[in-house]
């Protein structure tokens, strides 16, 4: 059945939410495919290039130009889409995924045309204090010293690390297991080297070209964020990975060399 699309001028009432300043773009085709699959927007062998943006009175094809990161640990993504008229706007991955359903918007959309954007992080409301009676002459509890917070660089930096293992971790976007690489002895090489211990990254097509093996030492450039590795299984021996042990994720590794 043919889909009748309205003229461009019909979108004059739309509220666009363009990205605020610079946003992340894709390094190459492999990086694009990795992110689109991570967002659950394509499960086919060939990753889709166009997606439907739907409202109650029309639907349009859009392309993905890049993404923004948000959240205290920068683990959230907002997709930057481009309309056929050249306008850019931001939308949450899960909302764009819903729009690909044939039944989307048939009964629930409002008359006003808007584009969904992620709600910014809100502070937790303070819990009301409850006065508790304490035993008399109770010794004050010793204050535990908080671990020193590590300030992660926002820009690309140079790393050295060692391949620890390959693993599968569950991706709730596409409801499939994703293969990842767990690295140990991860160090940011700078004037004062910063030791991070364990980190992980997606076992992308780019990395697979290097045919990595556990125990191999690497150096590369990349970005790092604080994002725990979801509990998963080792590729080889089916052993569980401890979620708390891997707290950092490496994005877009490039200029990779085996030491």
Automatic annotation (TrEMBL):
Basic and acidic residues bias (residue ranges) = 129-149
The biased composition feature labelled Polar residues covers 115-127
What are the boundaries of the region Disordered? 115-149
Put simply, this protein is called Uncharacterized protein
User: Which organism is the protein's source?
Assistant: Fredinandcohnia quinoae
């Amino acid at each position: 059945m043919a889909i009748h699309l309205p003229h461009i001028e019909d979108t004059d009432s739309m509220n666009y939410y363009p990205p605020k300043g610079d946003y992340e773009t894709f390094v190459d085709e492999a990086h694009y495919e990795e992110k689109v699959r991570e967002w659950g927007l394509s499960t086919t062998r060939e990753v889709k290039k166009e997606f439907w943006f739907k409202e109650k009175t029309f639907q349009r094809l859009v392309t993905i130009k890049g993404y923004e990161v948000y959240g205290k640990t920068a683990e959230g993504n907002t997709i930057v889409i481009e309309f056929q008229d050249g306008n850019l706007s931001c939308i949450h991955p899960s909302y764009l995924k819903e729009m690909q359903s044939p039944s989307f918007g048939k009964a629930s959309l409002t008359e006003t045309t808007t584009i969904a954007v992620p709600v910014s992080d809100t502070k937790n409301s303070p819990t009301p204090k409850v006065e508790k009676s304490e035993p008399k002459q109770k010794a004050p509890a010793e204050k535990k010293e908080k671990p020193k917070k590590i300030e992660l660089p926002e820009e690309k930096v140079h790393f050295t690390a060692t391949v620890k293992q390959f693993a599968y971790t569950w991706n709730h976007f596409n409801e499939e297991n994703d293969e990842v690489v767990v690295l140990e002895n991860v160090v940011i090489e700078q004037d004062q080297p910063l030791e991070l211990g364990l980190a992980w990254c997606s076992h992308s097509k780019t990395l697979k070209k290097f045919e990595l093996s556990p125990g191999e030492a690497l150096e590369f450039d990349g970005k790092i964020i604080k994002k725990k590795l979801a509990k998963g299984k080792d590729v080889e021996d089916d052993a569980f990975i401890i979620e708390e042990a891997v707290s950092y994720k490496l994005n877009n590794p490039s200029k990779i060399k085996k030491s």
